[in-house]
Amino acid sequence: MDQPPRGQPDLLALVARHATSEGRTDSPYPGLWFWRADRPFSGRKSQALTLSLLVVVQGRKTANFGAQALTYDPLHYLLLTGEGEFESAVIEADPERPYLSLSVAMPPDVVARTLIALADSEVGGGDEPAPAYVSRLDAPIVGALCRLLEAVGDPAERTVLAPLIVEEIVFRLLRSEAAAVLRRAVRRGDEARIQESMAFIRAHASDRLTVEELARRAAMSPSHFAHRFRAVARVSPMRYVKHVRLHEARALLLRGARAGEAADQVGYASASHFTRDFKSYFGVPPAEYARRLHAAPGQPA
């Protein structure tokens, strides 16, 4: 019988501490959330918004990507390789031993920087990566996840250490043999232009940005720019614009701004459009998200 990786009991205890009620529970750290189910369920539609790590610590789950169905458990993780839709089902859970998992959405900036660094020894080109894959969970990733969950409870560690731990997790995931297709998708020569475009988006996220304008600045055709941007950042250019805006809005909400004020400041013309996007990204409407995190132990960062 396969043995769980070192540190698995500690990770289970940390997730159980956060996932105390059924459904999704957000953490004070953006992109990190937990899930609990006391009984099996099927047919839940989900959306991947960026490269994301999903780890089951108790129970078992399947994710269906059309022709591709993947099962994962406490011995294996699921890596979503970029934005896309899928259908999931919890296939092992009961009130005595509930299904417990965590998810970490990786910042596109960190993904791009890591893929570019790791692409040095790879040959460019290759097939389009599958929307997701399952791989063996090892002790280094479990250890990093334990440190991340311990850090998010302390405001100073959440601000200083948690981003460094996420960078380590991205590095370990993208350095694995299973991620070779992702690395091969990064071609030498266009990294600087994509990183400059990402920096421009971060500095001008509240402006009205288009793929055509961003491609012109990068001296590429719109179609080539969009393809290369996605290969490096694992999200489309306009999805990245939305990512930056919503994370800026999240910070404003946690500092006391109203939803309408936050929407206006980050570049949304419609408050209802902002609320819809925010709920899709963070799981709940803006005001509810801020209320939950302000009520949680520790001040959100």
Automatic annotation (TrEMBL):
Sections of the chain in a coiled coil: none
Annotated keywords: DNA-binding, Transcription, Transcription regulation
InterPro entries the record matches: Homeodomain-like_sf, HTH_AraC, Tscrpt_reg_AraC-type_HTH, Tscrpt_reg_HTH_AraC_N
A Pfam family recorded for this sequence: HTH_18
Domain of life: Bacteria
Domain named HTH araC/xylS-type: residues: 195-292
Segments traversing the membrane: none
Identification of the protein by name: AraC family transcriptional regulator
Source species: Nannocystis bainbridge
